[in-house]
Design brief:
heterodimer, A: alpha+beta, Sortase, Chain: A, eight-stranded mixed β-barrel, two-stranded antiparallel ribbon, 10 strands, 19% helix, elongated, B: alpha+beta, Jelly Rolls, 7 helices, 23 strands, 33% strand, Sortase_F (chain A), LPXTG-site transpeptidase (Sortase) family protein (chain A), Sortase_dom-sf (chain A), hydrolase (chain A), hydrolase activity (chain A)
């Protein structure tokens, strides 16, 4: 017993030194991952996530000059998603357009969205803007939930109805994971609390830098009933968030109920 | 000495060769990059689609290397099984399952990012247990480039998820001849099988099990979000107790109808006698026990899956590179030069028409309420770009020359149009966050700190004890 104890006593300093060296090595490995210079693609000291608060990015200028499309593209296989010039209008409808549903005294709400092509059949909750005026997305704890922006028209009524959803969350794929696969002519169905069912036809799709978001094209007034679906895309920065937004434009093509 | 010299020379040649073979990191030319990368995939637990791990994939990653700021790094990643190993169905599903694949590409150098190309394929047909799962032909994702510099593009892990569809699957009362593997009902003593019953009795597969022994039990392990107990209504039946996951959840008496009145039916099969939905997706166990000496029957259990309740990573497989690290250095060049004129002139022969009018007309039309809608940080850039490109749209539409005089005709008659979106949001939408595997190594730092502090504290304690021990001896 005493022999065992003395053996342990002799080995203890070595074990402690090895432990401390191991600890230093682990910390260094962790620090290395931290201190690698990180640049999320924005310019200078303004991180991309804060770029909505002033300051300019060189990237924005270059994107808009070099590779923007004159109008929102149709999407589809072998057609890269590129941003349209900021001043471009929303894309023209892909087919027949029907008159918007007239609002009633009792305001309806969208309840469910279905996009057969990409296997989306998801409930719709409500989202709003935060104190900075940025549009929020549904809680990440509910990856299959989409969010209708409550200050936008009800889908089917005149104006651009806005619905967003996550592309991925920390747990993996989310409801709009395959949104970028949509192309001109695809159908989107939105079900409403008043029993009405609306069908929208995709008219265009684009991928834009969040710092060069086409605010007017997405949220500006239109002459008929339209739908915008928004999710994230592009590269993931060191902050764990995507750099780009994927935006789908659609126009009301059928209504029922 | 000569022997040392030759060994040194041979060693240096060997090292150079190894560097050439193992580290194919080389500045890329304008030719597209074309990388063949092998992966081995494994899953966690029997519910993974890679339970017969490792599943080997051969992938091919291609992308253009003549990248320019403002363009897109568009990754095309094709996937195929490398050998006979396969992802397999973790259960028995109706048509409509989806295979989701997400790659990870680390971008480091002048700036650092991660691009996650994704792809999915929908399996239209129903799936049997252990049936081979198809892979999407390819995955892709464009990332817009907005800064010049040399970047290293390095493929990383691939994540494969299986999403079952909504649906129901019957698990018949028979043995594994008419059931898929792993979906067999286990019977305790006292049951008798009855096969080849008349179709008019409506039993699933025209068969059922019967018992009149009290406490005779039968159970099924299943993966799903709900389950139904299917059997006949019959006036000779008695109460049956039902347990789920080890706890009694209810009972049913097939000799009574839904409102508790006795029935006169005989072997009227195919009824859902009891059901439970809304379970968390995963493996559960249902057990029925005959609670009396009257008859009890079991025709089938019907397993229900609500795909909305399936956690994304429940059937996940993670694929890691086995063919050695691969990376490619690519130079993202700055914009070729101020060439706004080469994009706008798409077939419009009259660029000179609008400039004569637009310098005065466009500024008057655009400002009221429109420029501030583009309320980003990019006001200045936006305007410079728009100024150049608006002329294009003016030409394309050919309505601007006639439309522009309107505002100037009535400067006092200002029309205020209510915004359809009542509060215009600001900037992009934060509608995604990277899966957790890509987070910072906080655990590494915390673990290292604990190890270091523990060792240091142990050292101090040891020294004090030794000092005290020496003092005592003195």
């Amino acid at each position: 017993m005493t022999e065992q104890k003395s053996l342990l006593n002799r080995a203890l300093p070595g074990l402690l030194i090895a432990g401390s060296l191991g600890g230093v090595a682990t910390i260094m490995a962790g620090l290395l991952a931290f201190i690698t210079p990180v640049d999320d693609g924005s310019d200078g000291a303004v991180p991309m996530a804060q770029s909505g608060q002033g300051g300019e990015t060189v990237g924005m200028y270059n994107v808009a000059n070099a590779f923007v499309l004159p109008s929102v593209g149709p999407g589809g296989p072998n057609k890269p998603l590129a941003p349209a010039v900021l001043s471009a209008p929303p894309p023209a409808p892909a087919g027949a357009v029907v008159a918007p549903i007239k609002p009633t005294a009792k305001k309806a709400k969208p309840t469910r969205i279905r996009i057969p092509k990409i296997q989306v059949n998801a409930p719709i909750g409500g989202v709003t803007v935060d104190s900075k005026g940025e549009l929020q997305a549904p809680p990440t704890s509910k990856p299959n939930l989409t969010g209708w922006y409550r200050f936008s028209p009800v889908p089917g009524e005149k104006g651009p109805a806005i619905i967003n959803g996550h592309v991925t969350t920390k747990s993996g794929a989310a409801v709009f994971r395959r949104l970028k696969e949509l192309a001109k002519g695809d159908f989107i169905y939105v079900y409403r609390s008043d029993g009405k069912v609306t069908r929208f036809t995709v008219s265009g799709i684009e991928q834009v830098k969040k710092s060069a978001f086409p605010t007017k094209r997405v949220y500006g007034n239109v002459t008929n009933s339209q739908l915008r679906l928004i999710t994230c895309g592009g590269m993931v920065g060191a902050n764990g968030h995507y750099d780009d937004n994927v935006i789908v434009y659609a126009t009301l093509s059928k209504k029922k109920g | 000495m000569a022997r040392w010299r030759s060994a040194l020379a041979a060693g240096s040649v060997g090292l150079t060769a190894a560097a050439c073979v193992l580290l194919p990191t080389a500045p890329a030319s304008a030719a597209p990059a074309d990388l063949v990368i092998d992966y081995e995939c494994s899953g966690t637990g029997p519910s993974s689609i890679a339970k017969y791990a490792p599943v080997r994939l051969r992938t091919r990653l291609t992308f253009a290397t003549d990248l320019v700021v403002g363009g897109a790094l568009d990754l095309k990643w094709s996937l195929a099984y490398k050998d006979a190993s396969r992802f397999t169905s973790p259960g028995y599903y109706a048509g409509g399952s989806v295979m989701n694949i997400m790659g990870n590409v680390q971008i480091a150098g002048a700036w650092q990012n991660i691009l996650q190309p994704t792809g999915a394929t929908t399996i239209a047909q129903g799936l049997q247990y252990d049936k081979e799962l198809p892979l999407p032909a390819g995955i892709s994702d464009p990332g817009l480039l907005n800064k010049p510099g040399v970047i290293k593009i390095e493929p990383k892990d691939i994540v494969v998820d299986f999403a079952p569809p909504n649906g129901e699957a019957n698990v018949n009362d028979g043995n594994d001849i008419d059931n898929p593997r792993g979906h067999v009902i286990t019977y305790g003593p006292g049951w008798t099988p009855f096969d080849d019953r008349p179709r008019s009795e409506n039993h699933i597969h025209n068969d059922y099990h019967e018992t009149s022994s009290q406490y005779a039990w039968a159970e099924l392990k299943f993966v799903g979000t709900g389950v139904q107990y299917v059997g006949p209504r019959d006036h000779e039946g008695g109460p049956v107790e039902i347990e789920l996951d080890g706890g009694v959840r209810g009972s049913v008496d097939p000799s009574k109808n839904a409102i508790g009145d006795p029935v006169n039916e005989v072997h009227n099969g195919g009824h859902t006698l009891w059901e439970l939905n809304g379970l968390p997706y995963g493996e559960h166990k249902i057990k029925i026990t005959n609670a009396s000496t009257r008859k009890a029957w079991l025709d089938a259990f019907r397993v229900i899956t609500n795909k909305d309740a399936v956690p994304t990573d429940f059937h996940r497989a993670t694929c890691k590179i086995v063919s050695g690290p691969v990376s490619i250095d690519v130079t993202v060049k700055d914009r070729p030069g101020p060439s706004p004129t080469d994009t706008p002139t798409t077939g419009q022969p009259s660029p000179s028409v609008t400039p004569s009018k637009s310098p005065t007309s466009t500024p008057t039309t655009t400002p009221p309420g429109q420029n501030n809608n583009n309320g980003n940080n990019n006001h200045h850039d936006d305007r410079t770009v728009a100024d150049r490109l608006v002329t294009v749209h003016g030409n394309v539409a050919t309505t601007t020359p006639t439309a522009t005089p309107k505002p100037s005709s009535g400067p006092t008659a200002t029309n205020y149009v209510a915004a359809q979106v009542k509060k215009t949001p600001f900037g992009g939408v934060p509608s995604g966050e990277a899966p957790v595997a890509l987070q910072q190594p906080y655990a590494l730092l915390a673990g290292g700190s604990v190890l270091l502090l523990g060792s240091a504290a142990g050292g101090v304690v040891m020294r004090r004890r030794r000092a005290a021990h020496a003092g005592n001896r003195r």
